[in-house]
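Hello support,

Our group uses your service weekly, and this is the first time we've seen a run hang past the timeout. The protein is Helix-turn-helix transcriptional regulator. I'm not sure whether the cause is the sequence or the server load. Input pasted verbatim:
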Amino acid sequence: MSKNRQAAVFDHLVGHGDAIVTLTRNYAVNHVISLHFHDRDQLVYATRGVMTVQTEEGTWVVPTHRGVWIPKSIVHTITMSGPVAMRTLYLKPRMAKDLPRSCCVINISPLLKELIVEACAAGTLTNRVLRQRHLVDVIVDQLRVVQAVPLQLPSVSDPRAKRVVEALSADPGNRRSLAHICETSGASRRTIERIFQEETAMTVGKWRQQLRLMHAMRLLGEGMKVTYAAQEAGYNAPSAFIAAFRKMLGTTPTLYFERTADEHASSIRRSRAQRSR
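Update from on-call engineer: The timeout came from a worker crash unrelated to the input. Re-ran successfully.
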């Protein structure tokens, strides 16, 4: 048993017999949910904010409009960038059989988003109630067709590669050459490249690009401007960051986060209207 597993807390959920248990919670800036695990598969979605999920296998950055799939028993932490409005579904294991048995970031369609919000409003969903059973079936059907998004930084185990990862992660915006960073970490770039390919299926240069993109996303989640986020993440120009963001998420950072703010405000208005009925 790993040290992380020993240190992690088992987060027991009420409603153990129900098909889906939900959690609705708002978190402050930089809040960290410490090491824990569940006996259910978990879909974590935020109607507002950016989350970073970490496991022994890697790091996933989850902007709004995306969710993170965390299978049962995987020890993880979640860190909030900016205020986060989190909506979580806990599914009985193997209900969503088509999703992988490892963490991944997935696209959340408009329909799936509404299903998540509806499920969270209900609290728990049981197959014993016909309407709730229909809702469970539709959620599972939607999960069968979701697409994964490559917003992941795989971990490494080789000590030399770990030192490179630590150096890059400590200052994502640093523009030192990879050759210099590798050499100061105890190996040539050629050796580090071979290790990264074997352990992550990525070049160290690609890993660094992914780190910078994900770091910039977290800064945007904290409310920083695009120009500042690009500079802090080490991009030569804001246009380079915008191009990388568009390639990954299909739109510009400004439009993406404006949509997030508009949808979050609309969700609040809808919730208030429902409570006033």
